[in-house]
Amino acid sequence: MNLHEQLGALEAGVDQLIQAVVAPQAQNIPETGNENAPQEASADKSVSAAKTAAEQTQTAGPQAGAAEEAAAPAAPLPTLEINRPAQNEITMTIGGQTVALRPEQVGKLIEELSNARASMTPEPPPGIPPGWRFVSTKNPVMAVQKQSNGDRLLVMRHTGHGWVPFTFSPDMVIQLYMMLTNK
């Protein structure tokens, strides 16, 4: 899947999720709104969420996006709150509108966000950040394919992220083998 397909898929998925929230809020924001209004944040569950000028530019074209950006006042970003009311349910609240997601919908959202994040800058940090929280999968299901250029595609099934693909050059395969068998 190329970059444009990834962005298109992400945009379609995220648009469905936030369409009912961001669009009505944008229509209800007065032109002289307070840009410095504080936003609520809950521990590590809330993050700012809104379409960026870059996404608007990509869908409307660079000149239209720049014109909209110059003409529209900066609006406060709606907050995104994520909660887990039940084991098999996640709720996302954006600007007061709550949507409940089932496991398959959460998986689709993770996939779309992951595909988009892969093309964004800055890249994730090269080292493991202090305090990073994660869930590891012991003995994951794996599949390997040899590519025509000699690379190896390794796909591993993570319990939270789903199927995660990695491509290794022959040199990296040797390094990985050495790392895994080093005592």
Automatic annotation (TrEMBL):
Domain of life from the UniProt record: Bacteria
Biased composition regions of type Polar residues, renumbered to the chain: 29-39
Region (Disordered): 29-73
Biased composition (Low complexity): 49-73
UniProt-recorded name of the protein: Phage tail protein
Native species: Paraburkholderia phenoliruptrix
